[in-house]
Records
---
Amino acid sequence: MIYDARILPAGAVLRAQVCVIGSGAGGSAAALVMAEAGLDVLVLEAGDFYSPDDMTQREQQMLPRLYWDSAGRTTIDRQVRIHQGKGVGGSTLHNLNLCKRIPTPLLEQWARERHLSHLPLATWAALYQETEALLQVSAVAGEHWNRHNRLLQQGTEALHWRGGGLKHNRSGCVGSGFCEIGCAFDAKNNAAKVMLPRIIAAKGRVLTCAQAVRIRHDGSAVSGLDLRAVDPISGEPGARLRVEAPCIVVAASATATPALLLRSEVPDLSQKTGRTLRIHPAVVAAGEFAEPVDAWKGIPQTYECTEFLRFGDDRGRPGDPDRLWIVSAFGHPMGVATMLPGSGAIHRAGMTRYNHLAVLTAMLHDETEGRVEPAGDLGLRIDYRPNAADQAQLRAGSRRIAQLLLAAGAQRVWIPQREPVQIQTAAQLDAAEQIDLGQAGLTAVHPMASCPMSDDPRAGPCDSRGKHHGLHGLWVSDGSLFPTSIGGPPQLSIYSLGLHVGRQVVAAR
């Protein structure tokens, strides 16, 4: 059953064998495994439940419903905008369905450096195979690539760079292009569509509009948690409630998970909780083409350029731009309007060319360690300032995406700044690398690695089962567990970790 916390009386106490905090990829996968194993599972979700009929394809309605802070969440210095999802299904409601495995060299590095005895390569491979079948992951056929992605392919091939098609977890897609604000056609094989019905069928419960405040524990074991009923859009708190459960699985995201653990004063010998955040910060550039691009039509992000994304022994020389993942990145009208340079008549003129724009983004496989801290009972603060090496990579990324757009035939390229950079020829590309990152409108959609797993409790708060070293009965099941960033979309790996953690919880009981 799905319940709304706002209808419960103040002081109400709920009981379960396992309480899962968060209903995104990691939380839903873990809940599915545990519920189908016969455990009494209660899932908490701070957002609301939305059916495909509720996906109105209107930015002003869907952004507040599906994104924390109405898609306006930023780092404390407001230099990076961080998009994170809410609602039953979490970020899987609004993401673009990209599915990639973590590259083998990176998994080998983790195993070597983090002593992940419960996650050998063979276990990862089996989890990926299972998750891909569960979500019906498949390559997007070339005939379904829109012109936006074809332009990226065209630029990549013209420069003789490395690239290729991407895999998605979608079926029955009509190419409406509204993926980022929810699918009205129920074509996303996401947590809400795939996991939720099975959780409910196995007698699992989901409590919406319920935000965890503190985990209750005696310093050695958990006993439950305190929570508040909240308005799913404004976040305004309501009644105080409580859950009694001997097992807590935290899957609240790589920002909310460490914030909750720190607020709850969960012991951590490693002192890593909330101190190793990676976010895949990204720069963008827009190319204006003579012929219409109509970038909002069709399936987004079906092609990638990986010329500058390397791992392990494939890494380039020091200083080379070798940590950049390049894909298309277009926004709906309101989103584009906030990034388009100029004001007044200049801005209006730019918007009249909306259907002639193609936008590319270079996401960084970052090494900067950001920090997350709780702010009051329900909030959090994110402090992330790219280090010198990551700044150099981002500037190189700005040049590379401008170069790609020109190679694809763009008449001019815009790089958003307060004083926008305009490039029309290859001779002007140096300007793309001189951007002020403080004005570049950096965005991030992949927070991770804030509770890095290690079987050594001195190196990370959780082991390779997802079990917290500090408290009996406490587990983590989201992208927080990654030891580093991964250089690509994380959802497939988070689902896979959720299945893994769920099974470890069942085995431990």
Note: The radius of gyration is 22 Å.
---
Amino acid sequence: MLADIGILITEINGWALDWPTLLYVIAVCILVTVACRFVQFRYFLAAWKYTLFPEKKTSAAADMTPFQAFLNSLSTGLGNGSVGGVATAVFSGGPGAAFWILAIGFIVMSVRYAEVFLSTYFAGRQSTQQNLGGPMLYLLSVPAGIWLVRVYVFFGLLFCLGVGNGMQTNTIGISLNSTWGINPWITAVVSFAFLLYVVFGGAPRIIRVSDRLVPVKVVTFFTATIIVLCYHYQNIIPALKLIFTSAFTPMAIAGGALGFTVQQALKYGLIRSIAATESGLGTTAIFYGSSGSKEPEKSGIMSMLSSFISTIVCFMVALCIIASGVWDSGATSTALTVKAFNTVFGVYGGWIVSFLSMTFGMGVLVSYAYLTREFWFYITNRKYESVFAILYCLVAFAAVFVDPTVLWSWADIPNAVMLTINLLGIVWLLPLIKRETTAFMAKN
């Protein structure tokens, strides 16, 4: 029975993020980029300024400040998809996938701007005192919006539980077991206890723990990857050339018996870029909608930076894999990333990757606890918070023992639904985004 469900999920996943969906995403990203007058390029430096000198919390009822919204959106973008997902993209799409991860990463920044702008714009105009934000708010202005919101929230809850929660504990369990031989039951129990402490503290504790985890994740990752790249410094230029040429020309390997096409490189680069940055999903819009911001344009510009950093993280992982020469070793996912780090750190490479997997995963678990809580509150009209807390912890516990193939296959299904609905709302409200953004640019 479980095997049949896994096969069905894999088959549905095959077309959930296939070319029709991907071309739709690219078209919307280009449309928004043009309508917003290339905001991601014109205001790239301003994004750093607004992040380093952010707006203070403007509402006593707000769950977080704009800067905390930035940290949480960055945390969700730095997960095990960056450690293992990028390696899978290189394995399936070849070195050229790394180029498209970078290129698409810049394009989707415009959509990140648009969704956060809409969330803070409408949040500042709602009459209720609830910290409601994200697509649940601005989709109501779209025809049949209430039904779109209901579908979005349903799949959003499934996405948070399966990807933001289950996939993280599953990957942590596999990494700790393969590296240090830690029994999965120990990982499951510790994850359950940790999350029980976090989620029962409500929004303040979730945000406080997330604030402390993000710097650890960022410092650990950049320190480790920079050491790997410095060690292979002579291979960086050849690796960059290989990435660029493979992005535009078919590439044969294994004596021409196997190879990578340009379409493969583009497809897997696009999928990984969307999954890593989460631009277009609307999740970041929920964080900013709960921040009490009164400046939607600045919040949108500020939010683009977390999307950019997530893209750079993914590209650096891919560059480490390619520059170290292990990209065609036959390994995939986290095992391929481990091989790259092993070329520098020996057997301790697996230790470092496992530590990255653990810190990345725990950070995502905490940030997604807030998102899951918001989806749950929408469905239950802000009731049964204790039930949500127990459910979230139980999913984290059980996911440690699930076949990882099923979890990774499942990820693309709610991802595709959320993307489709959220981008539809952005396109419908694009005249509003364009008008307000143009007026903001005229003043700044």
Note: The radius of gyration is 21 Å.
